[in-house]
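quick one, 316 residues, struct below
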Amino acid sequence: MKTNKKIYGIPQEILYTVCVAAWKLCGQNLPSFAALKAFYLETFVANALQAITDAKRLPESLTTISARKEARINLIKDTRKVLANWQVLKVYITKAFDEKLVKTKLHAAGASLYPRASVDNWTAVRSLIEAANSFIASNLDVLTANENMPPEYLTTFKTAGDKCIASYVIFSHINIEKETATSVKIEANNAIYMSVMEMLKDGQQIFKEDKIMKRKFTFRYLVSMHKGERPASLKGKIVNNLNMPVAGAVILSQDQKYTATTGNKGQYHINRIAAGTYTFTITCPGYNPLVQTITFAAGKASKGDFEMANAMKKVA
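---
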């Protein structure tokens, strides 16, 4: 049965190393295995090793990390433009309608959707765009009366909304590709894990009277022999010059191996970082990029709290 869940419980790099070691151990004791089950031949072991190589070569994603991050940055930027435009529309509505009607009109224009849209709920963003477009078109005469809202604002809002929706389609497509590739990778990893576990069970049966050899055919023992150094990690919080959290900031290592995006509270976390020194770039629409170099020790958790400065707006 196919599943998208990992059943091996260890990092895949260690899985590959352990599986190779296990099958080589089987090959070294092939006559004993063949005596138990006739299908244990050199070609059988070779095919098992090839399956590991094939699984290792499978891409974890059909798109690069940088492409996905670029799509997300573009989507966030376009969303911020839509939100800013909606706030302008709010002013036009407030001035165009009687005070008693303003709340109802704002609701019709998508006011109830705005809070969720402002925290990057893409469904809410799209609904907000549709509600606002419909409201402007239906109330154009009232909104533009007394030189309140420029008639071309209908096009201005729609153009920004269409651009945001197009960015969402691109981002969604990339995510689907990534999920598909990840699913294929996990299925291949699960298959080599199940195969090696069956062989290890046979090994334990063959060497049930030899405690030392029986132990060698134990998955947990092989993992302990090949686990090596534990990875490092990085977590922290990104704030602005007012000490307010910066949501949607992208932290990306120069080699593009390690990345994270801050949540609504400005927090992020990157796991499984190999020991060494890395340069990270931190970007977010509306802020100046940051570059930070951090050295990681094996098995150590590092903290990275940074402050981003608002980007200077160009004066025409």
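The beta strands are 232-239, 250-253, 259-261, 267-273, 276-283, 290-296, 301-303, 306-307.
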